[in-house]
Amino acid sequence: MKTESTRQTGDAAPRSILAYGPLRDLLPEGLSLPLADAATPETVRGAVVAFRKDSGFEVASLERILARSAVASADDVLREQDTIGAATCLALLPPVCGG
Known about the structure:
Layout (H helix, E strand, L loop, with lengths): L4 E2 L6 E7 L11 E5 L5 H14 L5 H8 L2 E3 L16 E5 L6
Parallel strand pairs: 1-3, 2-5
Antiparallel strand pairs: 2-3, 4-5
């Protein structure tokens, strides 16, 4: 099921989340989640899992893939200690070849 989804809370700004590889089958197209500038890749992955749980989906396979996935902004693949800053679009990059 691919539908646009947007959630906003507090001072977090909506960020578009792009999914690649097998994550495309597990996440809706047009996903947008509220994330603060101080969010880290771990925060992003947690928000994605929470969104799917709240939507009533089983998340075990999503959690397995996300645990090994990188988060990227338009400029960089983020390190775990990096924050997303003002990025309005983030990409979830699953491991290649079983990574």
